[in-house]
Structure formats: structure tokens, C-alpha cells
Amino acid sequence: MTRAISLQDVSKTYTKGVRVVDRLSLDIAPGEFLVLLGPSGCGKSTVLRMIAGLEDITEGSLLLDGEWANDLPPSGRDMAMVFQNFALYPSMTSGDNIGFPLRIENPGADPRDRVDATARMLGIEDLLDRYPSQLSGGERQRVAMGRAIARHPSAFLMDEPLSNLDAKLRNHLRAEISKLTRELGVTTVYVTHDQSEAMSLGDRVAVLRGGVLQQVGTPREVYGLPRNVFVAAFVGTPRINLLRGMVRAPLGGAMTISLGKQFLRLPEPLSLDHQLLRVQQGREVIVGLRSEAVRIAKHSSARPGEVPLTGLVDHVEYQGHEVLVHFNTGSHPAVVPDLEAPRPAARPARRRRRDGSVIDRLRERAVALRAGVGSGSGAGPVAVLDEPEAEAPAPAPGIPRIPGDLVVRTTPDIDLRHGMQVPLLVDLAHLFVFDQHGERICPAPARLPDLDE
After folding, report:
1. pTM assigned to the model
2. Where a domain ends, among 174, 202, 227?
3. Which of these, 11, 24, 114, 229, is most buried using a 10 Å CB contact count?
4. Of 347 and 89, which is predicted with more confidence?
């Protein structure tokens, strides 16, 4: 039997008022594989522990198969948890570790048949007589998974189970976990900070930032249509190119997005998404371009929807099956604050202006409020574009400079060298535009804001 899990406005606050999960609402269907993704310390494991009953819920409700379960003890939830550090008993053999929860549940029964069946499923039959100290990291993790599988639980809760393993073994076990959970058909909640794991394993991915749910959807939806700039930057390898831009929409001319020394000319007639950019006239925005949205080609070979750019080769990364080329296009990269930090930093308080009209002050107040609730929470703005410095300081000696401002993925047969000037073509069908606070404005959100809100 598998289980439906529902979190309704769940919050967790520790002592001294530290709020690590903030009004999280999430429905997990029976048999679904859901991945909780986010930077370390953003509240993923706390959510998992609240589902398991290892942490109390400060506010909100947990429903298991539609029944309220906030006060249900862990033993009554019929869930199995796989921990990051394996959590095996060192004085027990692998077989005893797998059979231990079975002996606790039913002291009079002999667990050997279920232990043997689980070992065959995981391919560890020859490890049952060994102690944890005699096993490799991958073998210990298989034993830990066997202990969870042998119970036939209604849900698996996995807390970064592969993070302590080397890359090759991690990829192998990732495929095994995917195969096993689908064969068993058990609801699985998997916590990770590795977006590659999230994209390859999950039926859906829920992205967290500072304890706040940013977006939930299929891996394809989260990658292809990120709700805000944080999701866009966190999901995808290599990381999405984020550039500071300025929308220019003259009444008698073509609309462009200035990138500093160059610009993107939006083709006419404008698409609906590009028409909506007119309201950003004269405002600074964040332009997002995945590495596959730009190709190296002569400007004369542009396809419909492609516009030209030119870049100077700054760095070339040979990956074997592909090449990542770092270009300098004269653009200014946009920085997403706290991308790798667990919680967003508080914004400095605005100083009240003594001058200006009432309309100006109301407009400032509206912008400040929007920054506070841009992601549907009080977690603060996803991104803030400050005024650029007149002269960027030179990097200190010994600190490497980040090469280029635009990374392009290309084939390994291309021969590029540092300093070469290369023609580029940008596919505007894959153009993302985010406002100053990081909310996506192009492609347009599914629900446009109401002017009365």
C-alpha cells in the first residue's frame, strides 16, 4: 500500500524565532517520486523530518491519506527513512541490519526470507555476513536501502542518500534507486542539493529557498519555464547566463534590450510575450539565456527568431562530448544574491525620502512590498539589481577572475582560441526576461497580475 502526503501551510520555527520552513503547501500523490531541491540549509531535511514525525510542526497541517497526522508518532506513520550517513549498527552484520526493523515489528517471526529477498533485489547476497566496517560506501548505502525496503513501507523518505559517495558510484546508485522505487510503486520523497539528481530522478521537483517553496513541477517545466531567476539559476548545468539589460521601446522604432555594448533587437511583428515587455521601457531587467540558446554561426545564416551578437573568446572548457566556450560580449552579469546560501539576506532598510510627490512615495512603497512578497512569501526578493559601480574594482592578487559573461555549449570539433572574435546567434524563442526583483516577465506568467491587486 502506498500513501498520499499533503502539507498544508506548514511552518517550522526553532528557538529564538528562527523560521526554517515558511507556510509550505505541497501535495504528493500516491506512488509519486517527489524531489525537494535547494541549497544546503534551506529547510529540505526539516520538511522530510516533519513528514517522518522526527520534528514537530509549529504551524499548519500534515495529512496522510487525507487524515490529520501532526501528532501521529513515527512508528504509526509506516514510513522508512534512508539517511545521509547510512546509520547502520556497527555491531550487526548486514543481514542483521536489514532484518532489525522486522524483528522489532514482529518479534516472533523469522525475517530471513524477507532479508534474502531484499538482498537479491539489491544484489548484496554475498554481503549479508559482513559488518559495516568491512563494506565500501556504496555497499553500506545498499544495506541501508535494504533495511528500508524490507519493511514494505507506504513511503520512502530519503535524505541526500548519495552525497557521501564518489561521482561514478553516485550515478550508478541513482539509476538503481529510480528502478527500485518505480518497481515497488511506493511514494518517495527525496532530498538533495544536486540538481542533476533532481532532474533525473523526480516525477516532480519542488525548489526551496530560505524555507519557502519557489516552484514545483516536472523537471521539464522547472527547467524550461522557471518561475523566477533563482529557480532559473539553480536548475541547469552549466548555469544559465544572467545579464543586466535595459528595455528600449521607442514609439517609432524596433524594441531592443540593451546589454551594454551590444543589444538584442526583437523581431517584428512582436510576439505577445515581447509586446508585454513594453511596460518595462527604460527599466533595468535581467536577461536569461541558457547555453543552448546561443550558437556559433555567421550572422548571414540566422534562422527566423535569431538575432546577432559578437563575442570574444575568453576561455574554452573541453568536456569531451561537448565544449563550453566563455565569451566576453561587453555585458554586465547579473548576480543572484544568496544563490548558494541557505537563507536570503535581509535587505537594508530604505531611508525615507524628504522630497518627491505622494505618487513617488506610493510607488516606492509598492516596489518595496512587491520585493517582500515576490515569491508568495516573506522570504525577501529573489534578486535585486543595485546601481552599477562607476568603475569595477580589480580582483585582488591570487583571486581568479570569472571568465566571460556568456557561456555557450557547442560541439567538440570546433577550434577556438583565446581572443578570437566570433559571430553568435541568439534564439529569442529561448529568451528569459526577469524584472528587478527576479520575477519572470517573459515568457509571460500563466496568470497576469490584476491591476486592482
Report:
1. 0.82
2. 227
3. 229
4. 89
